[in-house]
Every structure is written in structure tokens, then in C-alpha cells.
Design goal:
Layout: H1 2-5, H2 9-35, E1 38-40, H3 43-51, E2 57-60, E3 64-68, E4 75-79, H4 86-92, E5 96-97, H5 107-137, E6 153-155, H6 171-185, H7 187-193, E7 200-204, H8 211-222, E8 226-230, H9 241-256, E9 259-264, H10 267-270, H11 281-296, E10 303-309, H12 317-320, E11 325-330, H13 336-347, H14 358-364, H15 370-386, H16 394-406, H17 417-436, E12 443-447, E13 458-461, H18 472-493, H19 501-516, E14 530-532, E15 541-543, H20 547-574, H21 576-589, E16 591-593, H22 594-605
Parallel strand pairs: 1-4, 2-5, 7-10, 7-11, 8-9, 9-10
Antiparallel strand pairs: 2-3, 3-4, 6-8, 12-13, 12-16, 14-15
Bound molecules: adenosine-5'-diphosphate.
Residues 167-170, 207-213, 308, 342, 345, 370-371, 374 line the site of adenosine-5'-diphosphate.
């Protein structure tokens, strides 16, 4: 919302100033002007001027007399005196009795200066600000003050560059959208059969998965104009402005049909109307206008609306009903193959060494979105430049994944010897527990170089392939791995440190999800105790159970974590020698790879 308000501030500011000038002019200038030419004289001068018949107009007041000379060039003032024959003498001298001697001199000038001049300034300022505002908003012939005009960006040429081929992964989404492209190319094929295209398509998914890119690719493939606007740009300070922007957008779009209108972050205007008092009227009116517009045009007039959101659950049901946004295309985080493809697409822009294996990189970057992968490639290229190379190698890419996960290496962080040892044991603890449990993924890398994110070290575990399901056993094992760091500290040093706070958080989250969402506790069976609020934005949860149950849940969460902690301790106790050896090696080298780790582990076993 903030970007819409900012340009208006100066407008009001200048109008305020102009109004103030007008007021001040009226208060101070009028009397000043009125009295500017009055000359004070004594009564004797007045009398002699009467005798000389040098009197033009005269105004006799209780305490003063105002008069002019014969030619009305100058106004004089003198005090009133007891003079019974004055009126007769004045009459004889040919004076004109007037009530406005002092003001009668230049009424035109007075009103010109006090009223018309500020008014002219006022109008000129208004025009100037209007022009400025329109320039800022990019409009040319907008309504008064440039408001109520949609500031959608129109891309016709630029999107020619983006094609479906540039959007890697997301095959299902592309398939769904390819139909739209076909329709825009050849609507007759569809209308002949009596099929009508969906009016609106909603792209839903986490941030950075390529929703905007897909919409642009549709426009690029179909080679039609592409209007892009963000939902928040509709929300104005004044009620009704957003609605008028929607009207304007649609009238523009209809002129350019066939075309694509893309509304990013549609949840900014499309939130459920809850009817609460003091709700956002402007937003509701904008939404109503959008609903009306979508109803208003027939299925085949060639305006296709694409919208993107991360929060589909918050959208108004009226918006998502068939006839409006009737098709929903999920744009999920890419899977292993998708990640590999996305990396390859972005790697085309950089020079690569021969050793780069995108499959490994994609495996390491589990859970990364398209935008993050693009970022990883770019970070790697920057790293190559920093190292004075002209190409990007595998190490650059691996390091940039770590940068994205854990931040940059802290080169000058100085850990005490004891601390370094604790961190080495802590990380080895994680890795060893992971390796000793058959269901845990193998360790890729362990490092104890501090990172800017605050991590003093970390263990990178990499899954062999994509995992869509996790068994109860696997979740328990993972909790055990999280507790493994602390367990190693306890076992070796007999004391505990603050280093495990992140592990504790993760372990608790998993244990809680097991009980409240995955139905993995015997007592609660398959009853949901928590709901996920924002599936695509971090997945916050809220409890939906009685306070008594809540207490029981807490007890069970503690029991699960405790059990796994004990298991981790036991594993480490049984492998104490390996723990010592691995920790010593890690302490020495600071970073060891999965292979080195396994080699030490197996060497001892043999
Ligand atoms: P969203 O709209 O879903 O938040 P964008 O479409 O704006 O995400 O994507 C941001 C950037 O991430 C793109 O400019 C592109 O560089 C990269 N990106 C995201 N997804 C993909 C993908 N599937 N293939 C290639 N690049 C992608």
C-alpha cells in the first residue's frame, strides 16, 4: 500500500501552502493596501484646503475625517473637531460626500492582489503537481490528478524473450498453461466444439517457484500483450479508487484483446470479505469490482486472467468459484529432476568447468526454490570471479549452496580451543548418529567453520533421491540425529552448552508434528490436533484442541524427544572410540567430506 500513497503527499502539501497564502493575503494585505496611500494632516491644512476649494470626496466619521484633493490623487486623514459649519463649508467648496473614501481609490488592484493572485498561484500549483503526479504514475491522459488509472505495465516486446523452455521443472503447470496458449492462437478450434476457456487461472505455490515467469512465458508463447500489475497496487487511500483502477485495467485489456492480464499477489485484494466493522472498505470495493468485471466479459473475448498467490486459503470463495478463477495450477517447489533442470537453465548464462555435476548439486540443494537455485548459480559465478577464474567449477556451486543455507564463512571468528573442540564433537555426534542408523541419509559434509548465520558448524545430510513420504521410524531417527550433537557434548565433556538451540527447536517441531498432525501416537489415533495455516509460507500451525489435550500433547512430545535423546546417547556410547577419532580429525581439518567420514568409520570397524 505504501507505494501508492507516497507521491500524493507533496500534492496536499502544496495545496495547503497555497490556501495559507490566500488566507494570509486576505488578513494582512487588504487593510494594508487600503491604507497605503492615506496621508495624515492637521485640521488647519484641511480647513485651508476647503477654502482653496481643493477638496474632492470627503467622509466624516466620529473620530476622523477622510478626504481627497480635488483631483482624487491622494487620500488625507485628519482628526474630527467640533465644527458646526463644516458640512456647509464643504458643500460650498464642492466636496462630494462619500462613504468609502479610503477604499475607493483602487478596488480593482486590491481585489487583484488579495484574491485573484493567490487563486492564480493556487491553480498553477495544482496544474504543476497534477502533471508531476501523472509523470510519476506513467499515465498520459488520466482523470483528475492521475488517480483511478490502472498503472499496469504492458509488455509486448519484452516477454517475447521468455518461453516455456526457460521455465524448467514445473512440467504439470506448463502442460496446463500450454492449452491456454493454444486457445489464444486458435480460439476457433475451441469455440467450434462449444468449449470455453477458463476466464481466470490461479497459480498457487511458495515464493520463487516461477509463477510470474510462467505467466510471462504464456504471453511470450502466445505472442500477445501482457499486462502485469500487483494486487497491492489496486489498494488506494481513497475508497473507490482501486475499483476504478480495475475498471480501467479491464477496459485497456479489452481494447488489446487477445491478451493476458497478470495480477501478482492477488491475495492483497482478494482476501475473504469477513464483514467485520471497520474492515477495509476500499479493498472490498476493489474486489467487488474485480468480481463484476470477471463476470462481465464473455468466455471468448480473449482476455485471459492469470493471478498468482502464496496464500490460496485466504482468498474469497467468490473469487475462486467456477466462472472466475476456475482453474488452479499448483506451482510447487521443484523436485530433484526439476532442480537439476533449473540449475542447467541458469547455468547457460555462466561459463562452466567440465567437472560440474548438476545432479549432485541438485541433491545438495534439497528444498530450494527456482529463485534460490538461480541465486546459487549467480553466487557461484561471483565466487569464481573473486577467485580470479573465468569459469565456474563444482566447488563454487557447492560453496554457494552453503552460503545460501548457512551464510558466508566467518574468516576472522576466533573460537577458543575448548569451544572448537566442543563444536567438533557436537557435529561429529550428529554425523555419527546419522550414519549408525540405517534409515538416516548418509552424511555429505561436516564442517566447523563458523558462518555468518551464527552457526558454528554444521552437518550436511543429503538424501539420495526425492522423498515424498517419511515413515515413523525415519522421523524418530531424524530426531535422534538432532539430539546427537548435545549427546556427544554430554558424553565427552560431562556438561552442556547453548550450541544445541537450533537442534532442539527442530527436534521439537518434528516430535510435535508426529503427534498433532501425522497421527503417530497411539492415544490420539488419527485425530488432528493442529492445522497448518499458511501451507506455502512457512507452514505456521495453530492448535485446535482443548487445554487438557494440549497438556497431554506436551507430555508426549517430551517423551518422544527424550526417548530419541537416550537412543543417540547409547549409539555414541557404543561408538565412543570412533567418535573421538572422527572429532579429532574434524578438529584438525575443520571440514571433512562424507567419503572421508565413512572411510574413518569403516577403517575402525575393520
Ligand atoms: P514467483 O512469482 O513464484 O514468486 P518468479 O517467477 O518471480 O517467482 O521467479 C523468480 C526468479 O526465480 C525468476 O526470475 C527465475 O530466475 C527464477 N526461477 C524460479 N522458478 C524457475 C523455474 N522453474 N525455472 C527457471 N527459473 C526459475
Amino acid at each position: 500500500m505504501k507505494e501508492v500513497k507516497s507521491p500524493k503527499k507533496p500534492l496536499y502539501y502544496y495545496y495547503g501552502i497555497a490556501l495559507l497564502v490566500l488566507l494570509l493575503a486576505n488578513i494582512f494585505l487588504t487593510p494594508m493596501l487600503a491604507r497605503a496611500q492615506v496621508t495624515d494632516v492637521d485640521y488647519g491644512t484641511f480647513m485651508s484646503m476647503i477654502e482653496e476649494k481643493n477638496i474632492g470626496s470627503v467622509e466624516v466619521e466620529d473620530s476622523q475625517i477622510l478626504f481627497t484633493d480635488k483631483d482624487n490623487t491622494q487620500v488625507y486623514r485628519t482628526g474630527a473637531m467640533e465644527d458646526p459649519t463644516l458640512t456647509q463649508r464643504l458643500y460650498d467648496a464642492g466636496a462630494v460626500f462619500d462613504r468609502n473614501v479610503d477604499q475607493g481609490t483602487s478596488p480593482l488592484l486590491t481585489s487583484l492582489l488579495t484574491f485573484f493572485l493567490p487563486l492564480i498561484i493556487f491553480i498553477a500549483l495544482g496544474q504543476y503537481m497534477n502533471k508531476k503526479l501523472m509523470e510519476q504514475m506513467g499515465g498520459k491522459n488520466s482523470m483528475s490528478f492521475g488517480m483511478g488509472k490502472s498503472n499496469a505495465k504492458v509488455y509486448v516486446q519484452s516477454t517475447k524473450g521468455i518461453r516455456f523452455g526457460d521455465v524448467a521443472g514445473e512440467e504439470e503447470a506448463k502442460e496446463s498453461l500450454a492449452e491456454i496458449v493454444d486457445y489464444l492462437h486458435n480460439p476457433k478450434k475451441y469455440t467450434d466444439v462449444g468449449a470455453s476457456m477458463p476466464k481466470g487461472i490461479l497459480l498457487v505455490g511458495p515464493p520463487g517457484t516461477g509463477k510470474t515467469m510462467l505467466a510471462k512465458a504464456v504471453a511470450g508463447e502466445a505472442n500477445v500483450p501482457f499486462f502485469s500489475i500487483s494486487g497491492s497496487e489496486f489498494v488506494e487511500m481513497f475508497v473507490g479508487m482501486g475499483a476504478s483502477k480495475v475498471r480501467d485495467l479491464f477496459s485497456q485489456a479489452k481494447e488489446k484483446a487477445p491478451c493476458i492480464v497478470f495480477i501478482d499477489e492477488i491475495d492483497a485484494i482478494g482476501k475473504k470479505r469477513d464483514g467485520q466493522m471497520g474492515g477495509n472498505d476500499e479493498r472490498e470495493q476493489t474486489l467487488n469490482q474485480l468480481l463484476t468485471e470477471m463476470d462481465g466479459f464473455e468466455g471468448n473475448n480473449g482476455v485471459m486472467i492469470l493471478a498468482a498467490t502464496n496464500r490460496p486459503e485466504s482468498l474469497d470463495p467468490a473469487l475462486t468459484r467456477p466462472g472466475r478463477f476456475d482453474r488452479r495450477v499448483p506451482v510447487e517447489l521443484p523436485d530433484l529432476k526439476g532442480r537439476e533442470d533449473i540449475l542447467k537453465v541458469h547455468a547457460k548464462k555462466v561459463k562452466l568447468a567440465d567437472d560440474v555435476d548438476f545432479h549432485t548439486i541438485a541433491r545438495m540443494a534439497a528444498g530450494a526454490s527456482g529463485a534460490e537455485l538461480a541465486n546459487i548459480v549467480n553466487e557461484a559465478a561471483l565466487r569464481a570471479v573473486r577467485a580470479g577464474r573465468t569459469f565456474v567449477n563444482e566447488a563454487d556451486l557447492e560453496e554457494s549452496i552453503e552460503i545460501v543455507i548457512a551464510g558466508y564463512q566467518k574468516k576472522n571468528a576466533v573460537l577458543s580451543d575448548k569451544e572448537k573442540k566442543v563444536v567438533a564433537y557436537h557435529e561429529t555426534g550428529h554425523a555419527l548418529v546419522a550414519a549408525m542408523q540405517t534409515h538416516s541419509a548418509p552424511v555429505q559434509k561436516i564442517t566447523i567453520i563458523p558462518r555468518t548465520s551464527g552457526a558454528l558448524g554444521y552437518t550436511m545430510q543429503v538424501e539420495q533421491g526425492d522423498k515424498y513420504l517419511m515413515t515413523k521410524q525415519e522421523i524418530e531417527n531424524r530426531i535422534a540425529v538432532y539430539t546427537g550433537g548435545r549427546a556427544a557434548e554430554e558424553l565427552v565433556f560431562g556438561e552442556i552448552t547453548t550450541g544445541a538451540s537450533n537442534d532442539i527447536e527442530q527436534a521439537t517441531k518434528l516430535a510435535r508434528a508426529m503427534i498433532t498432525r501425522y497421527g503417530m501416537s497411539e492415544d490420539f489415533d488419527m485425530v488432528a490436533m493442529e492445522t497448518v495455516n499458511n501451507q506455502y509460507l512457512g507452514g505456521d500451525t495453530s492448535l485446535i484442541c482443548s487445554p487438557e489435550t494440549q497438556k497431554e500433547i506436551d507430555e508426549r512430545v517430551v517423551a518422544v524427544v527424550k526417548e530419541q535423546h537416550a537412543k543417540a546417547l547409547e549409539i555414541l556410547r557404543q561408538n565412543r572410540e570412533k567418535l573421538d577419532e572422527l572429532a579429532a580429525c574434524l578438529y584438525e581439518k575443520e571440514t571433512i567430506t562424507g567419503e572421508e567420514f565413512m572411510e574413518i568409520l569403516e577403517r575402525k570397524e575393520a
